[in-house]
Specification:
Blueprint lengths: L3 E2 L10 E3 L22 H8 L18 E11 L3 E13 L8 E6 L2 E3 L4 E11 L4 E11 L2 E3 L12 E19 L2 E17 L9 H5 L4 E14 L10 E11 L9 E13 L7 E13 L31 E12 L6 E12 L11 E13 L4 E9 L5 E7 L4
Parallel strand pairs: 1-3, 2-20
Antiparallel strand pairs: 3-4, 4-5, 4-6, 5-7, 6-7, 7-8, 8-10, 9-10, 10-11, 11-12, 12-13, 13-14, 14-15, 15-16, 16-17, 17-18, 18-19, 19-20
Length: 406
C-alpha cells in the first residue's frame, strides 16, 4: 500500500478509476525479461527502510494466493477540486487447470471537494473450469457534473452545470463457445434521480432543456453479449486481441421510461514493438450507437462514460454527447528501467459524435498526451498510470488509473 499526492491545477477530468476486469490467461514472463529481476513499489519501500526486496515471483501463478493492489491517493482537478481515492484490484484464480484465466475485482471509492461521491465496482469471475464467466459493473454516484450540449461541434462555452444521483447495475453471464470466444446475456439498469440543471451562463435554452428534462430517468433492459479475448493479461496487456459486442434492448415493462436500443463495439489490439521487447503498441476502437428510440439525456453516448470511464483522455468527462459516438485511440508503451519499475506512454485519440436526434457525425475532436507508469504490483503486472492529455478548445487534464487505460 502506498500514498501518492497528485496535483494538476489545470486538469479537467475528475475520474480516477481502476480497470480492467476482462479475462486473462496464466501469466508467463518473456524469457528475455528474466535477466533483470522485476521491481515494484513494495520492493523500493522495503529497500528504503532497510529490508530485503520481496522474494515473490514476478507473475501470479496457479496456486498462488489472491494478489491485492491498493493505491490511496489525493488528487486535484477542475472537475472535482480535491479528491480522495482508494483504488485497487484483486486478482486470483478459481481453477487450477493449465490454461486457467485470471479473475479480477476492481474498485475505487472516491470523495471530492465538490461533494461528489462514487463507489464503482467491476468484477470478472470465472467458474467451472473457465466454462462460465460473470461480468459485473455496479456503481453508486452522487455526482454534480456539467454537460456541454449535443454533438461534437458543441462549444465549451455551453457549459451547463447539472446535479444528480445515479445507480448502475450491469450484470452479464457468458458461456464458452470456442477458443477465447464467449457469449451470453445480461441485464442493464441505469437509474438517475434528483436531476437538476443550472442552465447556460447567458440564460439561453440549453440542449438538455431542448432534448427534454426530467427529475428522474430509468433505462432497464436485457442485453446480448459476445466477447473474444486472447490477451495474456487484461490488467496490462502485452499482446492479443479483445473484441466485444453488446446489444441492449430497454423496454417499458422492465421499468424504462422509453423503449430504446443500443449497440456497443469495443476492439483492442496489442503488438510487441520492437519484436522481443516489452514495449507495446496498442490500438483501441470504441463505438456506441443508439439504434432506435430516444434514451434519457444522461444515458446518451458521451465522452468518458464507457464502462471504465477512460475514453477521451484530454477532455472532461461528459464533454461531448449524442446519438452516435465513434472513438479511436493508439498508445505506445515503453520501459524506462530494465526492472519494469518505471515506464512511460505516449498516446493520441480522436472522437466524433452526432447530435440527437440527428445521426450525422460532426467534427472530429483530437487529443494527445503522455504519461508515466509506476509498477504497483509486479506479480499482477499492475501499474499506476498517470497521464496528462490535451484536447481542443483548451481542454486538458490529469488522468489516473490503477492498471492501463485500455
Amino acid at each position: 500500500m502506498v500514498f501518492v499526492i497528485l496535483l494538476g491545477s489545470r486538469a479537467l477530468h475528475g475520474q480516477v478509476l481502476v480497470r480492467d476486469s476482462n479475462a486473462a490467461r496464466v501469466l508467463h514472463p518473456a524469457s528475455s525479461a528474466r535477466r533483470v529481476p522485476g521491481q515494484d513499489i513494495v520492493d523500493v519501500l522495503r529497500r528504503w527502510f532497510g529490508y530485503k526486496p520481496s522474494s515473490k515471483t514476478d507473475t501470479i501463478r496457479l496456486g498462488d494466493k489472491p494478489v491485492l493492489s491498493v493505491l490511496p491517493a489525493v488528487g486535484y482537478t477542475l472537475q472535482t477540486r480535491l479528491a480522495a481515492i482508494v483504488a485497487g484490484n484483486l486478482a486470483f484464480f478459481t481453477s487450477q487447470h493449465p490454461h486457467a484465466r485470471l479473475s479480477v475485482f476492481t474498485a475505487s471509492p472516491t470523495y471530492t471537494q465538490n461533494r461528489q461521491f462514487t463507489i464503482p465496482v467491476q468484477s470478472n469471475i470465472w467458474l467451472r473450469g473457465d466454462e462460465f464467466n460473470l461480468l459485473g459493473d455496479w456503481r453508486y454516484m452522487k455526482y454534480p457534473q456539467s454537460t456541454y450540449g449535443l454533438g461534437s461541434d458543441a462549444p465549451i462555452e455551453n457549459r451547463d452545470p447539472m446535479n444528480y444521483k445515479y445507480i448502475r447495475f450491469y450484470q452479464y453471464g457468458l458461456r464458452k463457445m470456442g477458443d477465447d470466444l464467449y457469449a451470453g446475456i445480461g441485464y442493464n439498469l441505469d437509474y438517475h434521480w434528483d436531476i437538476s440543471e443550472s442552465g447556460l451562463a447567458d440564460s439561453s435554452a440549453s440542449d438538455y432543456a431542448g432534448y427534454g428534462t426530467s427529475e428522474k430517468s430509468t433505462s432497464s433492459g436485457f442485453s446480448v453479449i459476445a466477447v473474444y479475448d486472447s490477451r495474456p493479461n487484461p490488467i496490462n496487456a502485452t499482446g492479443g486481441l479483445l473484441a466485444s459486442v453488446v446489444w441492449r434492448d430497454n423496454v417499458r415493462w422492465l421499468g424504462s421510461h422509453s423503449h430504446w436500443q443500443s449497440l456497443v463495439t469495443d476492439v483492442r489490439k496489442y503488438l510487441t514493438l520492437p519484436a522481443g521487447s516489452r514495449n507495446v503498441l496498442a490500438f483501441w476502437n470504441y463505438n456506441w450507437i443508439i439504434l432506435q428510440g430516444k434514451p434519457p439525456y444522461l444515458d446518451l453516448p458521451s465522452t468518458g462514460w464507457d464502462n471504465f470511464n477512460n475514453t477521451g483522455r484530454g477532455f472532461i468527462q461528459g464533454r461531448y454527447r449524442g446519438n452516435i459516438m465513434v472513438y479511436l485511440e493508439t498508445e505506445y508503451r515503453f520501459r524506462l528501467t530494465a526492472s519494469g519499475l518505471l515506464g512511460a506512454v505516449v498516446f493520441a485519440n480522436a472522437e466524433s459524435f452526432s447530435a440527437a436526434p440527428s445521426r450525422q457525425l460532426e467534427s472530429l475532436q483530437p487529443a494527445v498526451g503522455a504519461g508515466l507508469r509506476i509498477k504497483l504490483n509486479k506479480k499482477s503486472n499492475t501499474n499506476i498510470a498517470i497521464d496528462y492529455g490535451v484536447g481542443t478548445q483548451g481542454s486538458r487534464g490529469l488522468f489516473v488509473n490503477v492498471g492501463e487505460v485500455f
